[in-house]
Specification:
The complex is a heterotrimer of chains A (about 575), B (about 300) and C (about 325).
Chain A lengths: L1 H25 L16 E6 L14 H10 L4 E3 L6 E3 L2 E6 L5 E6 L13 H12 L12 E2 L2 E2 L1 E6 L2 E5 L19 H9 L22 E7 L3 E6 L18 E6 L3 H10 L11 H12 L3 E8 L4 E5 L6 H5 L6 H10 L2 H7 L5 E3 L23 H10 L20 E7 L3 H16 L3 E7 L1 H10 L4 E5 L11 H4 L18 H14 L4 H18 L2 E3 L1 E10 L2 E2 L18 E2 L10
Parallel strand pairs in A: 1-12, 16-17, 16-18
Antiparallel strand pairs in A: 2-3, 4-5, 5-9, 6-7, 8-9, 10-11, 11-12, 13-20, 14-18, 14-19, 15-20, 21-22
Helix pairs in contact in A: 3-4, 8-10, 14-15
Chain B lengths: L2 H31 L6 H5 L3 H12 L5 H13 L13 H36 L1 H15 L3 H15 L10 H28 L1 H9 L3 H19 L1 H19 L4 H10 L3 H29 L1 H5 L2
Helix pairs in contact in B: 1-13, 5-6, 5-8, 5-13, 6-8, 7-8, 7-11, 8-10, 8-11, 11-13, 12-13
Chain C lengths: L4 H22 L1 H4 L20 E4 L2 E7 L2 E5 L4 E4 L5 E2 L1 E4 L2 E4 L19 H37 L1 H16 L2 H11 L6 H32 L2 H8 L4 H8 L4 H24 L11 H8 L2 H6 L5 H17 L3 H8 L6
Antiparallel strand pairs in C: 1-2, 2-5, 3-4, 6-7
Helix pairs in contact in C: 1-3, 1-12, 3-4, 3-6, 3-8, 3-9, 4-6, 5-6, 6-9, 9-10, 9-12, 10-12
The chains are: A alpha+beta (about 575), B mainly alpha (about 300), C mainly alpha (about 325).
């Protein structure tokens, strides 16, 4: 009897250890590709909040199209969205000339499109031809220019291309990260007849597509789902030589509401959602993680924080009627008057970090940790406001300007976006405490953009999305002559001395290939921006990405799509015997 | 079918057609003059001004309004409702799916409401015992317009799990529309029935010895049909308005949400298409109700 | 018309509820314990405070217990066991509140930004009610004028006006307001939205009133005194002045029917985001916070505005379904008197 009992205990302990190890191993996380537990096959179910308007990445630039391109097409090189490193994809290796202008790129050999035809340099040439074509007017063209000049591409032979940059470009070949290679044999005719933009629309039959990505389109049911199946011709293998992708199929269900996505994740009917988890869902998901239903991955601090800015265009109505609104002291006062802790606690329920710059800790090497911090200090804020002539002249408790009018301005933001509306409500309340009157106006998207682009707004609160960590992808924001220099866009020449300084620094950092030098220059630009605060940031969310417990190999990123960007390396842990399959 | 009825139907048809035309053109014009247009979103995705200009030209946004409206109207003749800028698909297909979903929801709700409300109304008018139990519930439900009903049902579903809240499930949306309507029909039917029961025709029939069951369900019911049919037009309007709120709360893929997205995205053809189909649905239901009333009550045919 | 005790009781209950609602709405600044826009730190999603009168076996003045935040991410609070906080009555211009150092009195809990739900509710009721009242006034004036003119003039004018009326009558109100409001410029202050919405509601609601008024006035036109006036040469406008008063009781009932309809309309439009700007408390904007599935589970008190709307509409139903003229109106019969 005793021996049996001991035996039972030992077996139980061993089993428990085995289960623990198995749970541990299937937790995934960023431990690198292909650990021992990989299982081939299975159908991953994902949700996405928007549906594609077209399958032509060069004609349309929405997130749903981007997902399609990531799954079915491949680029020459790719920026690893978790680590930021440049990885070879269709390009096997590359080298640059000493002046950094001419890059010789060797293509991978023996690669075939999903329809079996070979991939050669002429496909690369065709892709670039389409990219820069005026008739196509591709939205991707802007990000593939260096100083408004296109790259020139020519083929040395079927496996080698030469890319010539018009000027030295800091990120180098990373510029190719967002350019999927198109199959010339499928699209040349449409291109030549001028109907390229209509090619590969949503009604195109699946057999018309050909791609170099890990999956191919199997079916698209409008309003419901897009189903992909694995591409047997996919060129990549893992470290152990196994063919990728591991999955058989990916089903992307179209679910327009984030609450609905969460419900499905919690019910265990989907594996992956569009993007990160909201703060209000975290507590519930943590409980589910404890029960083994979902896995939560922390991907780092968000890199696209919400920003507040005032309209600093001297010809705007705001600048003309309220000159005090253009003063640096006002912006410093606002930054001191708002308690960032309050925003972190109330809007993000604690799952965020207070930040003082647009470049958050999530940017890795580009983040500058020693920028001067801005304390929550209402007295200092009041003093700053008093120094620009704002005082309560009529005893109503609100600050007035020198003409006796109440000092007020309106912040526009996006209606229906909980984080933006709530943060603006807190900003309004905190500024009221120091005497500034602020109106919050929530507009729906189109009206909001219309206001901001038309320059008729006074202050705004929104988020700019950059799709990589490299500062060169943010050039349009930092450079005063560009359209996304949001507080005063498209300047003919820099309006202030500090903007001229930033322009200079940004141009320098984007025209050198020396990484350390680029970091130094960008850090300096950040310091100049921090000293002048044309935009004020308050908090950045701690990005948590949730997957169902059966997903393995996820490398979550703060950039979207957080899990599916590396879909070829995902696998599904099979359900334990006896459990119902999904 | 006599000449009177034919003329009546002819007039109503013409009015319905005019209604549909005015409503869809009005939607087109309103979205066109609204601030911002369909390309504003594209610019924000840093498509560059060339892409924006090209899209504006392709969508016809730089043409004068009248010619734009005219070309859209001519497209209607071939059932071509144009292309949606928000969804990138032909409007006709999109609207057909969504209108189908809303129509399915509304008809199911109407059927359910009629099946529950009308018979209950007959019963409450004839048996005071049932009235005492049903009337308070009825009054409470009438006080629950769809937006409140849908929130209450959602809460109920979450707390108890008796109803499914999965997307695409008919349970919560249909009940949210049907219950208040059923209560309203019950109240109306009860009232009309009470009057019919007291009318001289019925008293005479009873004196003739017609059995109680037939009296109730055949004679009195027929008489009470008139006022109930009379509000049929208002019922359709209420169903549509109510379905908008229900669709937004439960993410039901219906016409109301599509119209909302179209107006929000300044998608001209989609908004006009939605308005067109919505107007057609409303006009057709009203037409049917009017014809039914005209068949029952000849007096109605004289009034235009 | 059976006027049983049950029916009379229903009418009194309905009237009492309506009077309470109107009273609370008008007296909102006094009844609300806090400012509706104050955000209280660390009180987001706080549950309602329970008012107790018994402590440790003895009765004392009404008090509440302080709430302590246990887990921010899970939004969990508990009642502390420290000294009870006594309610203070009639101080600082408010009916009931707490000592300033004790924190806010949250009778219905707090919303996602830590604002007192009860105070927002009474202020929101006030705003929504005022809007509904203005909208009803507009709709009735418009409806009475158009319907009265149509009924008094007869002939082509009557047919034309009634055609227009029927056109608008058939349009689903929510869609009409959605498209109109969605297409209008959108930077509007609370005051501007108030008057704009009142105008939109008047436009959406006048047809029903016009229809009824026309019917009554057209019947009146056949009366002897009216025939005499027409024979004497009175034009439609003059005639209207004499005939309109006959529609008094109808208009009375219309008010009762339209107020809840417009309250619901405001709630729907604001919920969709096309109504009042977000920080402003109104029954509809408060529903935006409440209608999230994930919140309903944990903070059901956020549905208080929906419950309020339900009570108001119920009160109106109780009154309406017991009064003869109203019920006849709903059934579609014409009274012979």
């Amino acid at each position: 009897m005793r021996r049996e009992r001991i035996g039972l205990v030992v077996i139980t302990l061993l089993a428990a250890a085995g289960v623990l190890y198995w749970v541990q191993a299937s937790r995934g996380g960023s431990t690198g590709p292909a650990p021992a537990g990989v299982v081939r096959g299975g159908r991953l179910i994902a949700t996405h909040r928007s549906e594609p308007q077209s399958f032509n990445r060069y004609a349309s630039a929405n997130p749903a199209e981007e997902l399609f391109a990531r799954l079915t097409q491949a680029t020459l090189v790719r920026l690893n969205r978790a680590t930021g490193e440049l990885e070879p994809r269709l390009a096997r290796e590359w080298s640059s000339s000493p002046d950094g202008l001419t890059w010789t790129v060797k293509l991978r050999e023996g690669v075939r499109f999903s329809d079996g035809l070979p991939f050669t340099s002429s496909d690369v040439l065709f892709t670039f031809q389409v990219l820069y074509d005026k008739r196509v007017a591709s939205p991707l063209a802007g990000s593939a220019m260096v100083g408004d000049n296109p790259l020139t591409v020519r083929a040395l032979d079927t496996q080698t291309v030469v890319i010539v940059f018009p000027a030295v470009y800091g990120p180098g070949l990373a510029i190719l990260d967002s350019l999927p290679i198109l199959p010339e044999h499928k699209l040349r005719r449409a291109f030549e007849s001028g109907t390229f933009k209509q090619a590969w629309g949503v009604a195109t039959p699946a057999s018309e597509f050909a791609g170099l990505g890990p999956f191919t389109l199997q079916e698209y049911v409008p309003g419901q789902r897009v189903v992909y199946q694995s591409n047997p011709e996919f060129w990549r293998t893992d470290d152990q030589g196994r063919k990728l992708p591991y999955l058989d199929q990916i089903e992307v269900q179209i679910v327009p509401e984030q609450s609905a996505e969460m419900l499905r994740l919690e019910a265990g009917t989907v594996d992956v959602t569009t993007d990160q988890v909201r703060a209000e869902d975290l507590a519930g998901l943590q409980a589910l993680q404890a029960r083994g239903v979902v896995t939560l991955n922390e991907a780092g601090v968000a890199t696209n924080p919400e920003m507040f800015w005032l309209n600093l265009n001297p010809s705007s109505a705001l600048a003309k009627t309220r000159p005090w609104s253009q003063r640096l002291e006002l912006r410093q006062a606002i930054s001191h008057a708002v308690d960032r802790r309050r925003i972190v606690d109330t809007v993000y329920l604690g799952a965020a970090e207070p930040i003082f710059s647009t470049v958050t800790p999530g940017y890795g090497e580009w983040y500058v940790p020693d920028l001067p911090p801005i304390e929550f200090d209402q007295t200092r804020a009041r003093a700053l406001l008093a120094s620009i002539g704002l005082a309560d002249r009529n005893g109503d408790g609100k600050l007035d300007d020198e003409r006796g009018e109440t000092a007020r301005f309106a912040i526009v933001t996006q209606k229906g976006h909980t984080i933006r509306e709530r943060t603006c409500a807190i900003i309004q309340e905190q500024l009221q405490a120091v005497g500034l009157t602020v109106d919050v106006v929530a507009l729906e998207r189109t009206a909001f953009f219309s206001q901001v682009l038309g320059g008729t707004y006074e202050a705004a609160f929104f988020q700019l999305i950059f799709d990589s960590f490299d500062p060169a992808s943010q050039f349009d924001f930092w450079a005063s002559s560009k359209g996304f220099h949001i507080w005063h866009p498209s300047q003919a020449k820099p309006a202030t001395e500090w903007e001229a300084r930033i322009d200079d620094l940004m141009v320098k950092q984007s025209t050198t290939l020396d990484r350390a030098e680029r970091r130094r220059l960008f850090a300096e630009a950040q310091r100049v921006l921090a000293a002048n605060q044309p935009v004020i940031t308050f908090a950045a969310a701690k990005v948590v990405v949730a997957t169902s417990a059966r997903v393995g190999g996820a490398m979550p990123s703060v950039l979207a799509p957080p899990v599916l960007w590396n879909a070829e390396m995902l696998w599904l842990v099979p359900a334990p015997a006896g459990a119902s399959g999904k | 079918m006599n000449a009177d009825l034919a003329a009546f139907i002819g007039r109503r048809l013409a009015a319905a057609l005019l209604f549909v035309v005015v409503v869809s053109c009005a939607a087109f014009v309103l979205v066109r003059i609204a601030p911002g247009d369909a390309t504003t979103d594209l610019y924000m995705q840093r498509g560059g001004t060339a892409a924006v200009e090209e899209t504006r030209a392709r969508l016809g946004l730089d043409r004068p309004m009248v010619s734009h409206l005219a070309s859209w109207a001519t497209g209607l003749l071939t059932f071509d409702l144009g292309q949606s800028s928000v969804y990138g698909r032909p409007v006709a297909g999109l609207v057909k799916e969504r209108a189908g979903a809303t129509a399915a929801l509304a008809s199911l709700a109407l059927l359910l409401a009629a099946a529950i409300g009308l018979p209950l109304g007959v019963l409450t008018a004839s048996r005071p015992a049932i009235a005492a139990a049903v009337a308070p519930i009825s009054i409470a439900l009438v006080a629950c317009p769809p937006i409140i009903a849908v929130l209450a049902l959602l809460l109920l579903a979450i707390e108890t799990g008796w109803l499914s809240i999965a997307q695409g499930s008919y349970a919560v949306p249909t009940l949210a529309l049907a219950l208040p309507l059923a209560a309203m029909l019950e109240r109306l039917q009860s009232r009309a029935m009470a009057e019919a029961l007291a009318s001289p025709d019925l008293v005479a029939a009873a004196a003739r010895g017609v059995p109680r069951g037939r009296l109730l369900w055949v004679h009195a019911a027929r008489q009470s049909l008139r006022p109930v049919l009379g509000i049929a037009g208002a019922v359709v309007g209420t169903l549509f308005s109510g379905s908008l709120a229900v669709e937004m709360v439960t993410s039901w893929p219906g016409l109301g949400r599509l119209l909302f997205d179209a107006v929000a995205g300044r998608d001209l053809f989609l908004a006009a298409g939605c308005a067109l189909v919505g107007a057609v649905l409303v006009a057709v239901s009203n037409l049917l109700a009017d014809v039914a009333r005209a068949l029952i009550d000849p007096r109605v045919r004289e009034a235009a | 018309m059976i006027a049983s005790a049950w029916v009379r009781w229903r009418m009194r209950l309905g009237a009492a509820l309506l009077a309470t609602f109107a009273g609370v709405a008008i007296l909102a600044p006094v009844i609300a314990p806090n400012d509706p826009n104050s955000q209280f730190q660390d009180k987001a999603y706080a549950p309602p405070m329970r008012v107790r009168i018994a402590e440790g076996g003895s009765i004392r003045a009404p008090f509440v217990r302080q709430q302590v935040l246990e887990d921010r991410l899970a939004r969990r609070f508990r009642d502390s066991d420290t000294t009870p906080l006594t309610l203070i009555w009639f101080s600082d211009g408010r009916l009931v509140t707490l000592e300033p150092s004790d924190g806010p009195l949250l009778l219905l809990g707090a919303d996602s930004l830590g604002r007192d739900l009860f105070s927002r509710l009474v202020h929101g009721a006030r705003l929504s009610f005022a809007l509904a009242a203005l909208g009803v006034a507009g709709a009735l004036v418009l409806g009475a004028l158009i319907g009265g003119l149509a009924g008094s003039a007869g002939g082509g004018i009557e047919t034309g006006l009634m055609f227009i009326t029927d056109f608008f009558l058939v349009l689903p109100g929510a869609y009409l307001v959605l498209v109109l409001r969605g297409a209008l410029p959108l930077i509007l202050s609370t005051t501007q939205v108030f008057f704009l919405m009142a105008a939109l509601f008047a436009v959406a609601a006048w047809p029903h009133a016009a229809r009824g008024v026309r019917a009554i006035v057209a019947t009146e036109r056949q009366r002897e005194y009216a025939m005499a006036a027409r024979a004497a040469g009175a034009g439609p406008l003059r005639l209207m002045r004499h005939l309109l008063p006959a529609a008094r009781s109808f208009l009375g009932v219309e008010i009762m029917l339209l107020i809840p309809a417009l309250l619901i309309a405001e709630a729907t439009v604001s919920y969709l985001g096309l109504g009042f700007p977000v920080p402003t408390p109104s029954l509809g904007t408060m529903l935006q916070d409440a209608a999230k599935v994930s919140l309903m589970r944990e903070a059901p008190w956020l549905l208080a505005p929906a419950a309020t709307l339900f009570v108001v509409v119920l009160a109106v139903q109780l009154v309406v379904w017991t009064s003869a003229p109203a019920t006849d109106l709903l059934v579609g019969r014409r009274r012979t008197q």
